[in-house]
Amino acid sequence: MGVTYTYSGYPMVHEARHMVATGQLGKIRTIQVEYPLEWMATAIETEGNVQAAWRTDPKKNGRGGSIGDIGTHAYHLAGSVSGIKLESLTADLATFVQGRALDDNAHMMLRYQDGARGLAIQI
């Protein structure tokens, strides 16, 4: 099984990666990445939305919630553009939709290997 990280193929992302790699932006000190998923803001899994149903069911999706599902895309994009490896993170997970079994929101503080710091948000 594999994951297609579609956004990393966009020309604007390639340009940003080039700008970082050639030093046009100087030393990277902070990285901010956001992956909004507004369509999950309500309990659409109870309305027959198949994609939302597996994303919110820990028996089908595991316990990863928003980080294990959408967070991997934000993680990949930040690393792909910056070229810096993530060292550690602290996450504040929340479930805003009442009755949902998995978290649907994450705010993370990130530490990168070269001393850069970051913030990631999945909504």
Explain the overall architecture:
With 123 residues, the chain is of the alpha+beta class. The chain has helices spanning 11-21, 50-55, 58-61, 65-82, and strands spanning 30-35, 86-94, 105-112, 117-122. It is 32% helix and 24% strand. A four-stranded mixed sheet has the order 1-4-3-2, with helices on one face. A hairpin with a 4-residue loop joins strand 3 (105-112) and strand 4 (117-122). It starts with 10 loop residues before the first helix and ends with a strand. The model has no long low-confidence stretch (mean pLDDT 91).
State the helix count: 4
How much helical structure, as a percent, in the residues? 25-40%
Described by the principal axes of the CA atoms, the overall outline is elongated
How much of the sequence is in beta strands? 15-25%
Largest sheet: 4 strands, mixed
Taking all residues together, what is the mean pLDDT?
Answer: 91
By secondary-structure content and strand pairing, the structural class works out as alpha+beta
Low-confidence stretches: none
* Gyration radius from CA atoms, angstroms: 16 Å
The sequence of SSEs as H and E is HEHHHEEE
What topology, given as strand order, has the largest sheet?
1-4-3-2
Q: How far apart, in Å, are the first and last alpha carbons?
A: 25 Å
Number of strands: 4
List the helices and strands and how they pair.
Elements: H1 11-21, E1 30-35, H2 50-55, H3 58-61, H4 65-82, E2 86-94, E3 105-112, E4 117-122
Parallel strand pairs: 1-4
Antiparallel strand pairs: 2-3, 3-4
